[in-house]
Amino acid sequence: MAIAPQESAVKTGRVTRFVLYTVLIVFALFYLLPLFIMVINSLKPLGEITGGNMMALPQVWTWEPWAKAWSSAQVGVEPTGLKPYFWNSIKMVVPAVVISTMAGALNGYVLTKWRFRGDTIIFGLMLFSCFIPFQIVLIPMARILGLLGLSGSTTGLVLVHVVYGIGFSTLYFRNYYAAFPSELVRAAQIDGAGFFQIFWRILLPSSGPIIVVCVIWQFTNIWNDFLFGASFASGDGAPMTVALNNLVQSSTGVKEYNVHFAGAIMAALPTLVVYIVAGRYFVRGLMAGSVKG
Questions:
Q1: Percent of the chain having pLDDT more than 90?
Q2: Which end of the chain, C or N, has fewer beta carbons within 10 A?
Q3: What was the pLDDT predicted at 101?
Q4: Is residue 282 included in any domain, yes or no?
């Protein structure tokens, strides 16, 4: 008895989905394997790790490596753990993200709704800044921070990340605002609204998706940055990434791999939380700005 074309198509579709999901699951497991190893080994006593089987689940579950990584691991001269450096990163990331996002929103507003002679040249130069490698700006930035008296400080790192991030945030907001109806801006001008009134009351309230994109992008880049932190911060003012490197690269005493794994997960958790909370808006915001301008 011949199989109906419709039934054949259904069976083919089921086989295709089965193969597709199988491949995706295999790739997902392969991708998550390093995280799995980090998590289970951060919950083991050191003796189980040095025993040679890093893939096995802990025989004795313990939170001691996490507690030590947070509060008593030898990072610098004093056994402070990663706690003070975690708060250094928070004090660096929050103002840098807020300032660069607001500056980018204002730049995007000016470059799309208040056109002026040479605006395309200015936007082109800001866009060019997105492609400048970190290494090129190290010496000029160090010179500027020295002249401003901000070398080795968290405030100096905030300035560095704001300057480097304005090009990206301007690009996002400029593309997003390019399709915003200019008639609304002109109508607000006729009604007597000024420059900042239009920005605060009309454009900014409608910028939720692109603000999320900019915040996630900036937060991830600034939090995970190591080069600027190692170059422009020192001692107790170092961010989390520099402190984690100092912890892992320590050449004295026993290598406490369980503490190192716990510290690495702590350093990655903030960006993971940001993506979990706001990740669903990320692609939406990117698509909103990708076909405009």
A1: 34
A2: N
A3: 94
A4: yes
